[in-house]
Amino acid sequence: MNKPATPNSFRTGPDEQGMFGIFGGRFVAETLMPLILDLERHW
After folding, report:
1. Verdict on whether the full-model pTM lies above 0.70
2. What is the model's pLDDT at position 34?
């Protein structure tokens, strides 16, 4: 019998360092990045 697959880390949220797997700390569409950065500046 096959072992169950490991859970997809992108679906379980960021790790302890706030990273989504090897890709970094932001998991949003590229078209939203200007809005996300603007929100960060004003937060």
Report:
1. no
2. 94
